[in-house]
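Tutorial handout. Part one gives the primary structure; part two gives the three-dimensional structure as tokens.
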Amino acid sequence: MSHAARSGRRPQRTHFWERLVPPVGAKQLVPFYRQLATMLEAGVPLLRSLDVAGRSFSGPSAAAIVADLRTGAASGIPLHERMACFPHVFRTLDVEMVRAGEDSGRLPAVLEDLAELWQERAGQRRLMVHELTWPIITLHALFLLAPLPDAFLGRIGIGGYLVRGLGPLVPLYALVLGTAVGLRLGRFSPALRRGGFRVVHAVPVLGGAVRKLAVARFVTALEALYEAGL
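Part two.
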């Protein structure tokens, strides 16, 4: 049972677009966790720490999340319980680590570990993109070279050249986009997530890169949870 359910509070209802594109990403979570950890370590009260660290979040939706966390803290509700009400922003890993930090009295250290974890995840994602860049360029070059002689001789215009060159890749674009959406929404549907990974793993090159990323994330998450006291 989730923390929100145990505390009698349901997760906030989110729109489809917020689930697809969360209002808060890794670039905002890293400074939020780091500033919150620094201020708590310095003895600043949690409410004031949330006010300052929450400035890392931008946009009305993100500001509303920080306000809710602050309201919960002012009412004596543990921070991890309020975080659990926003699963499109704070993942189960984050909630569990914050809970462990609150239970053990090591919340500042755990928040710093969370900042490092999200920063490392961003680096892993960049590494995967780097590995896929050359195969993607090569694939597009192969399709674009085939109609190049006809375009050079004037048999087809620029529009026809692009249609003949990139047209065969449209189904692949649709497959990649659909799979990406499925994986993102899969956070809220395990069956959808499993289906998306089956598709990704069947794609040459991409499947291997995603598997490497998954293993790296599993290891770093396991290390972070163990160090947090779970």
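Part three, for discussion. The mean pLDDT is 81. The radius of gyration is 22 Å.
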